[in-house]
């Protein structure tokens, strides 16, 4: 019974960590792939071309 | 749960990212540097004299700062992908789907289609110097296409009925039927041979990278789960 309750509550809350990780991941991708600030653009230039992001 | 997602995402992303960076430096970067000779005007296509197809190109790490930054940014980018993937793996596992290094191969393939191949079908991987539409418009189209393809991949993998497959097909095709932002005119100085090779290499290395990433993420997801269970 206790185990069941624990499992159920774990399932209920585990969407939030997943959501947080998705936001963090997409944030990193946006920084490395899309942000046009020139320092970032220059540093990531070759990667953006090779990884298929719109670059210029 | 969050530490399991974070750990498997970081490990898988860093490992796959490092291998990808080296593959890109070896297979993609020389093509890009070759194109830059035309972009900068050092070589001229269709000039008075035929141009050699094999100019002297600087080797890997001739510009250590440039190539080093490329390695760091590739690792970062693939870590971002891996975090998203590990989070979705946690959701799929909770729905009863098995996650391991082997099923991870399919996750990787789906990721490649979502983030690289789907947008690249209409916004082909660009060599420097090609004509292209406004960057903002292309980024918006890229983002919408990736989002649609991601949902489509999930529906194909886990939908399990005809309607979800049809919706997936529609989501995959719609951005290309609507069309990506295109330039007003063509002005690229780079020979088409180099452009085609670049696109092919970018896709090929991208697919290898993503399959590795998926498999690594599946492996670390399972390994981290076992470790947590043993510790509990």
UniProtKB/TrEMBL annotation, chain A:
Keyword line = Membrane, Transmembrane, Transmembrane helix
Task: Give the Pfam families listed for this entry.
Answer: CbtB
Keyword set includes Transmembrane? yes
Question: Which positions, given as ranges, span the membrane?
Answer: 12-31
Protein name as annotated: CbtB-domain containing protein
Source organism per UniProt = Leisingera aquaemixtae
> Which taxonomic lineage is given here?
Bacteria, Pseudomonadati, Pseudomonadota, Alphaproteobacteria, Rhodobacterales
UniProtKB/TrEMBL annotation, chain B:
| Cross-referenced Pfam families | CbtA
Checking InterPro entries in the record gives: CbtA_put
> What's in the keyword line of the UniProt record?
Membrane, Transmembrane, Transmembrane helix
- List the transmembrane segments: 71-92, 104-124, 139-157, 162-178, 198-221
Q: Which residues form the signal peptide?
A: none
Keyword Transmembrane on this protein? yes
Note the superkingdom of the native organism.
Answer: Bacteria
Under what name is this protein listed? Cobalt transporter subunit CbtA (Proposed)
User: What species was this sequence derived from?
Assistant: Leisingera aquaemixtae
């Amino acid at each position: 019974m206790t185990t069941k309750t624990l499992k159920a509550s774990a399932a209920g809350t585990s969407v939030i960590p997943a959501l947080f990780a998705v936001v963090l991941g997409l944030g990193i991708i946006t920084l490395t792939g899309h942000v046009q600030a020139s320092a970032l653009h220059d540093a990531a230039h070759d990667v953006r071309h090779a990884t298929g992001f719109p670059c210029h | 749960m969050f530490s399991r997602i974070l750990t498997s995402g970081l490990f898988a992303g860093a490992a796959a990212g490092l291998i990808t960076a080296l593959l890109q430096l070896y297979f993609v970067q020389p093509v890009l540097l070759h194109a830059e000779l035309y972009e900068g005007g050092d070589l001229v296509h269709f000039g008075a004299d035929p141009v050699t197809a094999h100019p002297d190109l600087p080797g890997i790490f001739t510009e250590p700062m440039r190539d080093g930054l490329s390695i760091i940014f590739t690792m970062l980018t693939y870590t971002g992908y891996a975090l998203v993937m590990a989070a979705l793996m946690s959701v799929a596992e909770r729905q009863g789907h098995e996650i391991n290094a082997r099923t991870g191969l399919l996750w990787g393939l789906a990721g490649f289609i979502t983030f690289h191949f789907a947008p690249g079908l209409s916004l082909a991987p660009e060599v420097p110097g090609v004509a292209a539409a406004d960057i903002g418009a292309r980024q918006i189209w890229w983002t919408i296409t990736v989002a649609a393809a991601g949902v489509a991949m999930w529906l194909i993998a886990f939908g399990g009925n005809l309607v979800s497959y049809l919706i997936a097909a529609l989501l995959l095709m719609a951005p290309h039927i609507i069309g990506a932002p295109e330039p007003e005119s063509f002005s690229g100085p780079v020979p088409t041979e180099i452009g085609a090779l670049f696109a092919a290499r970018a896709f090929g290395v991208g697919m290898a990278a993503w399959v590795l990433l998926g498999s690594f993420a599946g492996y670390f997801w399972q390994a981290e789960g076992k470790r947590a269970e043993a510790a509990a």
